[in-house]
Amino acid sequence: MITQFTILTPKVTICNGKATTTSQAVATYFGKLHKHVIAKIESLDCSREFASANFSAHVENIRAGAVNRDSKYYQMTKDGFVFLVMGFTGKKAAAFKEAYITEFNRMEAELSSVPKYHPQSPELLSHDDLSNLTRLVWCMSNGFHFNQSWSNAIWYALRQVTGIPSPQRFEVQKIPLLAEECRRIYMITNQFKNVIFEAEKQVIRRCLRKRENAERVISEMQQSLEGAAQSNVSTLNSTLAQWEEREINLFAQRSHNRVAHHSSY
User: Fold this and answer.
1) pTM of the entire structure?
2) 109 and 206 within one domain
3) Is 248 inside a domain boundary?
């Protein structure tokens, strides 16, 4: 005579990307006292590494009658479950083990079918992109007495605004930020260059040719450095802006028909 068993679906859940079950679920499914399953787990003759990889102890607060108390339980992987139920004998236990393993396999197959998210690495500036950016930096710093210090400071500002530390390469998605920062720096360097240019003209004309008091002229030049710009300087700024904007747009639009030959910082 063949004995028929009612096979229920075992309780297997996903935890931290793995199919797992609990000592409570095993005790209920196999009709055993939970404390006996706990004792069995804690007396398994397996290595510490295996136990650590496949069993994890937890405590939950449960209500027993009128009081609440802490109850210990174990969460286990498929390998842990198989190791635990090796000693469960009999036809019924065998059928239940088979059902449990089948459910583990089903859950693992379901896990493996879920597409894994692999974030794409950001696209980095090409050699031509960097050449265009390097040309912009050179154009902004060229003409100053301490042009290398200006160049270093400009590269530092570009890295600050993008949050990309040296020597990491700039990302393509940061190009709009880089272009906007170049516009800001161009306004600063242009104004400063024009004030210096105007100051030199004034010193030559007034101090050398007209023999005016040098201290008074230099004092006026210092005031000019603080923001006083004459009308012809503003005209020069507006004329240069078209050329500068073209250079920035070439970089922003990743136009590589022209490659600069200046070293980057």
Assistant:
1) 0.47
2) no
3) yes
